[in-house]
Structure to design on (365 residues):
């Protein structure tokens, strides 16, 4: 029988997830700027800011997830594939939280219980995402050197980073490397023995992918970085704290940085948020064209993404290094067997199958 972990571990992990998920939502908004023309998009921005300022608030997080579901519904079908997936993940979160936050059952408002219910469901949704990411590539065009999207991505990375020459050999390598890695990541995430190495492989792979200049790729990577934390043990936050405390020099730097951030973050976020909302209001009232600010927004989002990606990479390396300490397994997949959040998982599964049912061929996972 699996030993029960302390409820506090789940609560700490849930608070960390709420903060990171709100940050990911902001990065999505900097990547796709259409939200500034939509009242629902402005509500989503405000909800993300509110959650960042107080990630311990379950109700703020609930409003954030609900606003994202509303915004994706309004924008559909004109939305990126991973933003649609992000919206269905938020639908899963909303359904689980409604079950626990409803007024008729005040005794069930247990943040740890909410986390333990939705984490396995969202882990399964990530595995479904990877399945279709690979399955959709199993066609003749993907392995054709002249038309494969892997070649297009390689050319974009080569133009930006000059990491390797673009030749038929390197394009062919990229095609098969992509298929192998995107197959290996979900397989490794399923098994406890390889789960932490799978998280590290996923972080490295999507870090490289996010460096591509194409709009949306670093937003996609951000979403996956945050979702990878659900595959970790519930007590990974306390373990990270313990690891930092064991290194006094690192701890002193982080404590000083944390103090500085706490002193300035609230004012920066509030004034910055007020500025953005004001600009959005002007856009809605006067129909001002803000396309000239697009590059600045993308650069800002990518700056936050780089910081998050490097932090996730360091954490993933540490997790793999301490495997010998017998970390407890992460989220138990396929558990719980019943939850209203299963509706979100089923919708993701259905969406992935739509090209083969003749329903849609463009907007799917």
């Amino acid at each position: 029988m699996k030993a029960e972990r302390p409820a506090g571990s789940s609560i700490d992990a849930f608070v960390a997830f709420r903060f990171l998920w709100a940050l990911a939502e902001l990065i999505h908004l900097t990547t796709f700027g259409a939200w500034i023309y939509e009242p629902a998009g402005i509500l989503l921005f405000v909800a993300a800011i509110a959650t960042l300022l107080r990630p311990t608030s379950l109700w703020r997080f609930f409003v954030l997830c609900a606003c994202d579901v509303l915004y994706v519904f309004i924008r559909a079908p004109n939305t990126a594939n991973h933003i649609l997936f992000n919206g269905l993940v938020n639908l899963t979160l909303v359904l689980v939280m409604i079950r626990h936050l409803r007024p008729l059952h005040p005794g069930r408002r247990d943040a740890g219980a909410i986390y333990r219910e939705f984490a396995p469901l969202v882990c399964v949704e990530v595995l479904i995402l990877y399945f279709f990411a690979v399955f959709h590539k199993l066609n003749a065009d993907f392995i054709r050197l002249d038309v494969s999207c892997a070649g297009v991505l390689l050319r974009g990375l080569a133009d930006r980073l000059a990491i390797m020459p673009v030749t038929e050999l390197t394009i062919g390598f990229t095609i098969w490397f992509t298929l192998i890695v995107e197959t290996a990541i979900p397989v490794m995430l399923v098994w406890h023995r390889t789960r932490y190495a799978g998280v590290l492989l996923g972080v490295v792979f999507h870090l490289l992918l996010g460096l591509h200049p194409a709009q949306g790729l670093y937003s996609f990577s951000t979403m996956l970085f945050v979702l990878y934390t659900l595959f970790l043990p519930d007590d990974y936050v306390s373990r990270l704290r313990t690891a930092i405390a064991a290194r006094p020099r690192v701890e002193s730097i982080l404590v000083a940085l944390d103090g500085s951030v706490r002193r300035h973050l609230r004012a920066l976020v509030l004034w910055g948020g007020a500025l953005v909302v004001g600009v959005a209001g002007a856009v809605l009232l006067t129909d001002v064209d803000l396309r000239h600010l697009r590059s600045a927004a993308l650069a800002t989002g990518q700056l936050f993404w780089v910081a998050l990606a490097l932090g996730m990479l360091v954490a993933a390396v540490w997790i793999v290094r301490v495997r010998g300490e017998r970390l407890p397994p992460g989220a138990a997949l396929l558990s719980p067997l019943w939850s209203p959040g299963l509706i979100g998982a089923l919708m993701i599964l259905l969406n992935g199958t739509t090209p083969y049912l003749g329903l849609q061929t463009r907007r799917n996972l």
Notes: The mean pLDDT is 79. The longest helix spans residues 248-286. The chain is about 70% helix and 0% strand.
